[in-house]
Amino acid sequence: MPTSTRRTTWCAHGSRARSEPTRETLLNPTAFPRQDARTLSDDGDELHFCSTCAFSDACLSQGMDKSALMELHVLVEHVGPIRAGEHVFREGDDFDAIAAVRAGTVKTYVVDRDGREHVLGFHLPGEVIGLNAIDTDHYPCNAVALDTVMLCRFSFPQMELLATRVPGLQRQLFRLMSRDIGRASQLAGDFTADQRLAAFLIGFSRRLAARGFSPHRFQLTMARTDIANYLRLAPETVSRVLKRFQVEGWVTVERRELQLLVPDALEALAAPVLRA
Amino acid sequence: MPTSTRRTTWCAHGSRARSEPTRETLLNPTAFPRQDARTLSDDGDELHFCSTCAFSDACLSQGMDKSALMELHVLVEHVGPIRAGEHVFREGDDFDAIAAVRAGTVKTYVVDRDGREHVLGFHLPGEVIGLNAIDTDHYPCNAVALDTVMLCRFSFPQMELLATRVPGLQRQLFRLMSRDIGRASQLAGDFTADQRLAAFLIGFSRRLAARGFSPHRFQLTMARTDIANYLRLAPETVSRVLKRFQVEGWVTVERRELQLLVPDALEALAAPVLRA
DNA sequence: CGAACACTTGACAGCCCTCAACGTGAGTGG
DNA sequence: CCACTCACGTTGAGGGCTGTCAAGTGTTCG
């Protein structure tokens, strides 16, 4: 019943923000101690937010003043941990918030009426989910945690309001959405299985690198089936192509542990997809 | 040279705005006379803009006050006519404006390094182009007129600025971009040629209907090759499937003139694609 | 230890792309 | 009015990529 109105399952089974701000705290942002920790796993409880956060660019580089920064900070609601298999939201839920992934991987997907699952995307730390729900006021897809996930939740009505006062935030939202448009269309092309998988691996590697993780050795947090449903291939094809890459000596694959030995070869394959 | 910085070709061969506002006019929005004409081919020289415009919803329904409406109106620069085959912008051009199609059809596409053309979308009257350029500050694709095109051009920096003062406009921009994300991902699925073409025809029909045109009988403004490159099919396949639809008695096709006889049959086929 | 699940590997078939040739309509110039 | 050109579209034959089906292996978890 996709048309029914129903409450979001946000944080349905996860614990709430580890230190839920009291109303007094909300009105007194200075209560948050300033820290300079910039580790990948920081919990965001400082003015500069999580260093991995998609909004940190907006905050730090766009000349956002301190008061605006604090206002954004007050909006944040820490959600999690959400365990693997638990849903962040489901298709048809009322849209009321977007979220930045703080840790873990979120998969967004839809199920068509034939029961086939279509994976829309995998969202890594620092990336934002929920932007495609703005148009219809309902989430048009499901979002599920692939491993243990921590989120920064932002009420969208409040975010919208703040964006009118903070041009840097508005601009960052525009950029994020614009980026999603491009990313969504890049896999729409008719590419071979090899090209698709190479593009997936290179894209994954680049996104990890952008957040400070190793681009050469990383873990695939999703099942082969998920990759297949994302790339519009059969799971068997994913398996076969990965094998072929391994035989070529371009990668090593051990369960979900992946190592890129010859990134250039994959880049060459992926070129038409990534820079189509 | 996709990395080179180069001026946009906006209105490269078309005539400029028919009544370019003077600086005084810009500062005196009341100089624009109010009109109530709401025809599909109105030229937008009134407060309510073209009735087909994607922003008219934002203006009229979101409670935008009169002064804000006038400010938006002042931003509009009428561009055209642009003749078939002329480009609105090209990949790599500096991004400085978005545009609403006022009349005609615009095709956006990219050419990969193998020389193959990938059509990203067809943009009908009332729809907006250029939103996917915000992220990189350069247009990531080409935009070409398929027939005689008229545009409403909006300087994006000015639009952004105005959006901070007019929440309704900001919201409309968010909605438009959110919609594009969804639309871009819906053809990413692995569907049969029949499903893709049915979805294309139904989608085209619906979009025309939304702007007041006949949903049952319309003209395909693009070549079979364009449709094929959009749906990731071979032109021959498009031809064959269209033929099959015609044999089934679902449509009549005469060159680019198309008539939907049994929309339900096509809807059924397209269902997995449109509401995947 | 057994069951469920994820993943791999193999055989086969089907959809659609490729290649090729032909038909058609619009525009041009004689 | 007609011949010509050219782009666009159609139709046919053949082959390749990848999906489907099936069986087997390895891993996790109860």
TrEMBL record, chains A, B:
<keyword id="KW-0010">Activator</keyword>
<dbReference type="Pfam" id="PF13545">
    <property type="entry name" value="HTH_Crp_2"/>
</dbReference>
<keyword id="KW-0973">c-di-GMP</keyword>
<keyword id="KW-0804">Transcription</keyword>
<feature type="domain" description="HTH crp-type">
    <location>
        <begin position="191"/>
        <end position="264"/>
    </location>
</feature>
<dbReference type="InterPro" id="IPR050397">
    <property type="entry name" value="Env_Response_Regulators"/>
</dbReference>
<dbReference type="InterPro" id="IPR014710">
    <property type="entry name" value="RmlC-like_jellyroll"/>
</dbReference>
<dbReference type="InterPro" id="IPR012318">
    <property type="entry name" value="HTH_CRP"/>
</dbReference>
<feature type="domain" description="Cyclic nucleotide-binding">
    <location>
        <begin position="60"/>
        <end position="134"/>
    </location>
</feature>
<dbReference type="InterPro" id="IPR000595">
    <property type="entry name" value="cNMP-bd_dom"/>
</dbReference>
<keyword id="KW-0021">Allosteric enzyme</keyword>
<comment type="subunit">
    <text>Homodimer.</text>
</comment>
<keyword id="KW-0805">Transcription regulation</keyword>
<keyword id="KW-0238">DNA-binding</keyword>
<dbReference type="InterPro" id="IPR036388">
    <property type="entry name" value="WH-like_DNA-bd_sf"/>
</dbReference>
<keyword id="KW-0678">Repressor</keyword>
<dbReference type="InterPro" id="IPR036390">
    <property type="entry name" value="WH_DNA-bd_sf"/>
</dbReference>
<protein>
    <recommendedName>
        <fullName>CRP-like protein Clp</fullName>
    </recommendedName>
</protein>
<dbReference type="InterPro" id="IPR018490">
    <property type="entry name" value="cNMP-bd_dom_sf"/>
</dbReference>
<dbReference type="Pfam" id="PF00027">
    <property type="entry name" value="cNMP_binding"/>
</dbReference>
<keyword id="KW-0843">Virulence</keyword>
